[in-house]
Fold each of these.
Amino acid sequence: MDAVISPSARVVIVTGMSGAGKTVAVQHLEDLGFFCVDNLPPILIPKFAELIQQSQGRINKVALVIDMRGREFFATLEESMKSLREQFTIPYEILFLDANDNVLVQRYKETRRKHPLAKDGSLVDGIQAERLVLEDLRRMSDVVIDTSQMKPLQLKERLASVVTGSDETSLAIHFVSFGFKYGVPIDADLMFDVRFLPNPHYIPELKPQTGQHPDVYEYVMKWSETQQFLAKFQDMLNFLIPQYKKEGKSQLIVGIGCTGGKHRSVAVAEYMFKTFSNSETEQLRIGHRDKDKDRA
């Protein structure tokens, strides 16, 4: 029951006991790049499969959360999965989340939510009834994860291991250049001010260009203070990235600002993006918020 879901899998069906952590799981799967649909009635799986095929590869990592909230629709799950395999030839894996009864009872008491099968208000009876209904599905699942003793971060690490085949979780890093005169990016996790660097704005032939232009980039990079700063900047991120990943952070937005967001911050962001592009474990993006706002 500890098989690894293939990285090329098209569909992961997430199911299991109510209260076992499916909501947390789907949030983590979204962080791993999955298109997630929560509480999808099984009868709609074939229709969703049509959408996957019509997307022509734009949607190729999908997680469908299906559980007892669908009640009478849940009975059609086996037939719908058969349709995936035979009619659409879309491979799928079943991920079953479980927890022991005592933990499930405690979690429901903490959330004060009603169990979907607790018709007469008896939580224990509802849990036992659900376990009986899901017995065959649990048996046929590709992966079963017991979350009884897991914290959210541990579940995330386990999901990363199951879905990617690696215990290493990736951190999406977004370098964003900006101009202080247009305001700071409110979503930045880290922010660096590079206004102390020599400014190409005062060089007539460089002023119209941006930090992406080779001449401007070379001008910003040629100073000793730039090289010292970049070395310290890189060293800091090399220290921080493992710490953020250890705490379960999935995205890091690094803001780099100069006066207008056109020259120095753009060049520095480009340098950092190229430097960390050599890392195989991180997802990198770069954006220049203000580089075209003050073209002369």
Amino acid sequence: MKKISTSKIASIVMVAFVLTMAIAPVGSAAWVNPQCTGTGLPCQTSITDFIMNIINIALTVAGLIAVLFLIIGGFRYITSAGNEETAENAKKIIINAIIGIVIIILSFVIVRVISEALVRGNT
């Protein structure tokens, strides 16, 4: 079994921290309604708004992770230095990241279409 070096663990923790800090404003913007005064607690008007906010946050996080894997795959491909095995692994990472991005975009569109149909159907 391969041992993971402490520098790799530190870089993974740092990337996770940076992603968390980048996503934090998106999450807080989804929960706070500027029309709510006083407590600053979330005041969603309906359960559908709440569910849509959670789905949007989840899709945003998944999209950021897919883009991160695309960057990692590109970096590994560039730094493969002629090693065919490393280049093939990097190509697989890039292809899987692109497939993930396409799936995330399609799921976002599907969720939007279904939510619009359900909202129009309720009124």
Amino acid sequence: MKKTENSGAGRSISPVIPQGVEVAEFEQYLDAVKFVDRIVSGSFPAAFIAIVGSDLKTVERLRGRVSYARVALSGLVTGSWVGLIFGLLFSGTSEATTTINYSSLASSVILGAGLMMLINVVRFSLNPNKRQFLSSSMVIAGKYVVVVPHDLADQARKASEASPVK
């Protein structure tokens, strides 16, 4: 016997597609969110609403080219921050004053930047699967439907009609 319902709000323990009535359908996610905002502002219980996306597609957007210079610059920036943090943590202050030893701090930043640049360039050159571009991926649905339980469908429709469009 498999328990899928949680107490009260109709939440699922295991990932299941919400069952109920589709009260609205949209091509854009933001339109579905605006609709849900409308019915929630009409005092519909938010815990019973689900936005379900279907017809999923993966979209990869290119952000730029990857080169040794870009990899080295990335290492320089990251290494500078790491060096700064280590320099602040481990550079002592003189006992007479509470000033930071700036030459030690600058050395830490330069050393961190140089090491991280070297590590990034070596890692990039040894990577057999290197691509010549940077990208980000996302999953986008072709349509979005707003689903509510069967017994609350009329209440959701009335709430959407009663609430003003924003």
